[in-house]
Amino acid sequence: MCSHYQGIQGRERFERHFGTALPEDAGQADVWPGYRALFIRNAPLGAQPAAGRLQALTGLFGLVPHWSTDLRITRSTYNARSETAMEKPSFRDAWRHGQHCIIPGEALFEPDWRSGRAVAARIGSADGAPLGVAGLWSCWRAQDQEIFSFTMLTVNADDHPVMREMHRPGEEKRMVVVVPPQHYGDWLSLPARDSLAFLQAQRPPDRLALV
Known about the structure:
The mean pLDDT is 92. This protein is globular. The chain has a single domain, classed as Alpha-Beta Complex (hypothetical protein yedk fold). It is mainly beta. The longest helix is centred in the first third of the chain and has 8 residues, at 11-18. The chain is built from four helices and twelve strands; from the N terminus they run E-H-E-E-E-E-H-E-E-E-E-E-E-H-H-E. The strands form two sheets. Strands 3, 4, 5, 6, 9, 10 and 11 form a seven-stranded mixed sheet that branches. The chain has a five-stranded antiparallel sheet with strand order 2-1-7-8-12, with no helix packed on it.
């Protein structure tokens, strides 16, 4: 699970890697649940994004379903288990409607228990490139305002050489799904029926490293 990550540092790096314009409000660079940060989706029909067909937006880290009465739900919806997201009330509408997004980041932080106690480990791309994490997005409407939000999707990591060392011993090991750049478009356009198979295929052991 991931509750803390770093956003992309620098407009040129962001736009070169993700192929879309960085919005004026890029959110916070150091991100925790409920903080504002970036996510990328396919631009809606009729929209005119500044660069290409993708659209970068700022939303809350922690998905806010349409039925939520307030924004405090972000404290528990920042990660979604890919195996059950289609059933859970917080995530099922976004899953069923294929509201896929890519969440850009420089690095993730997870508790490393190899020393016998939790030590924050910084995890990034093995090749130094930005990370693009698979997620779901939603739009919450209240009092004539729209608030976007997003969650990171996770898969089992019991056999991953890095991520299996994270989190408390005895707990199931989980990891977010890092999508390779050549498959960003595939994920963003994928129908809901193919989502789980795609996510479970994105676990190469050499994609993430301690940095």
